[in-house]
């Protein structure tokens, strides 16, 4: 064998070794690189199917080789699914979804900075992104314009304060007519934004908590202020008043009957009868308005997030990426949720779609959002905190006594 043949064989061996070393990297890149080969992907969707039909049609104008099939029969076998942050840890541990980092790195149009703060972080584990934030919902304040007019009370304004809120609730409260100034739909979640508006906190860090902070002085002050709405000012009903004073069996029933001036509920449920039918089985008949929650030391509201993930079993992950990246740029979302992309939620098209009030409230709320995360409920221990609220609301304990005891229990 000649020296040239030996050198050639040596080079071939070197390249073979390099190829083996690079194969996992190259195969990962190949999965992320787009292709024009005809493919079909199954999408486990959320909301009515007819909502997605025009979106799929528009998607096919850009990607005619990709067929998107709406699938509700078996979510586990879908190529793309909608997940909440509460699903993420289990899906990652089970190796059920793909890391999206290779796609983000190769897609210059994706723009991570365009997503509202904290939304990408909720879908990040071990330093990797596992889902694209798609849509957000948040607690907002609704009000009955008919009652405000009847009692001669000015409508709430976007930058209103706790004092404004309390004064409005007091002005509308009419014991003889069983009319309350305020009532909470989400009883357990309702005090949380007020705690953070006052500068309090229940965890040392919302996204990466290490301990509860129930006995924080500002938390105690905020909870006491909230309880005083019910026990001292009597502008919000107690549980017994909800049952006894013409409300039927629930706060929504009182809202329908025109006995509640203001109430917190999710942005998606505006107008009733569409967002979550178990809560609002019929449309609101009164003239109603909406504003962000009132502020104290700062603004804050509770929000939850839904995002798009790609299955590890997907045969065409690159096509799946093109679909979820496209979905994240759509103005319309199922059930009236807010797009997670700032450029979309703050666009003229979104304002035209949902109306000026809803768009303004959504944008203002997202600027100071408290994103519900698995860590929140893992560290918060709802049982301990719920018991503390019960003790306070019943008058058996002060806010300081109950929350100090709750913190002691949490530390045991």
What Rg is obtained from the alpha carbons, in whole angstroms? 26 Å
Helix content: 40-55%
Instruction: Write down the CATH class of the largest domain.
Output: Alpha Beta
Gap between N and C termini: 78 Å
Mean pLDDT: 87
**Count of spatially separate domains:** 2
Alpha-beta content class:
alpha/beta
Describe this structure in words.
It is a single chain. Helix content is 44%, strand content 15%. It folds into 2 domains: 39-136 and 304-368, Periplasmic binding protein-like II (D-Maltodextrin-Binding Protein, domain 2, 3-Layer(aba) Sandwich); 138-302 and 373-411, 3-Layer(aba) Sandwich (D-Maltodextrin-Binding Protein, domain 2). The strands form 2 sheets. Strands 1, 2, 3, 6, 7, 8, 9, 10, 11 and 12 form a 10-stranded mixed beta sheet that branches. Strands 4-5 form a two-stranded antiparallel sheet. The chain is built from 18 helices and 12 strands. The chain is an alpha/beta fold. The model is unreliable at 1-31 (pLDDT under 50). The radius of gyration is 26 Å and the shape is globular. Helix 2 links the parallel strand 1 and strand 2 (66-70).
């Amino acid at each position: 064998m000649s020296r040239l043949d030996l050198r050639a064989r040596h080079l071939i061996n070197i390249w073979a070794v390099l190829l083996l070393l690079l194969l996992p990297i190259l195969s990962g890149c190949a999965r992320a690189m787009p292709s024009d080969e005809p493919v079909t992907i199954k999408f486990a969707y959320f909301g009515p199917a007819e909502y997605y039909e025009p979106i799929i049609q528009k998607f096919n104008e850009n990607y005619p080789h990709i067929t998107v099939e709406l699938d509700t029969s078996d979510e586990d076998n879908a190529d793309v699914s909608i997940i909440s942050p509460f699903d993420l840890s289990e899906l990652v541990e089970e190796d059920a979804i793909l890391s999206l980092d290779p796609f983000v790195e190769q897609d210059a149009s994706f723009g991570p900075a365009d997503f509202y703060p904290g939304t990408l972080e909720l879908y990040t584990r071990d330093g990797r992104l596992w889902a694209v934030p798609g849509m957000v919902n948040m607690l907002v304040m609704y009000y009955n314009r008919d009652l405000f007019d009847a009692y001669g009370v000015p409508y709430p304004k976007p930058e209103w304060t706790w004092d404004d809120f309390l004064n409005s609730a007091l002005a509308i409260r009419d014991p003889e007519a069983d009319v309350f100034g305020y009532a909470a739909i989400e009883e357990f979640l309702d005090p949380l934004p007020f705690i953070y508006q006052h500068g309090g906190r229940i965890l040392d860090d919302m996204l990466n908590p290490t301990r509860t902070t129930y006995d924080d002085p500002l938390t105690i002050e905020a909870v006491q202020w909230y309880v005083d709405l019910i026990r001292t000012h009597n502008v919000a009903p107690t549980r017994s008043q909800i049952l006894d004073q013409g409300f039927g069996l629930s706060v929504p029933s009182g809202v329908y009957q025109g006995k509640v001036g203001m109430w917190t509920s999710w942005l998606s449920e505006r107008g009733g009868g569409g967002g979550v039918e178990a809560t609002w089985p019929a449309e609101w008949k009164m003239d109603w308005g909406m504003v962000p929650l009132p502020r104290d030391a700062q603004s804050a509201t509770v929000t939850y997030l839904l995002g798009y993930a790609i299955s590890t079993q997907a045969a065409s992950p690159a096509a799946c990426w093109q679909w979820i990246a496209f979905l994240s740029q759509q103005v319309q979302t199922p059930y009236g949720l807010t797009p997670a992309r700032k450029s979309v939620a703050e666009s003229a098209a979104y304002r035209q779609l949902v109306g000026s009030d809803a768009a303004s409230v959504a944008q203002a709320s997202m600027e100071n959002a408290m994103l519900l995360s698995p860590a929140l409920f893992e560290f918060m221990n709802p049982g301990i905190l719920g018991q503390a609220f019960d003790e306070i609301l019943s008058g058996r304990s002060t806010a300081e006594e109950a929350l100090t005891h709750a913190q002691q229990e949490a530390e045991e």
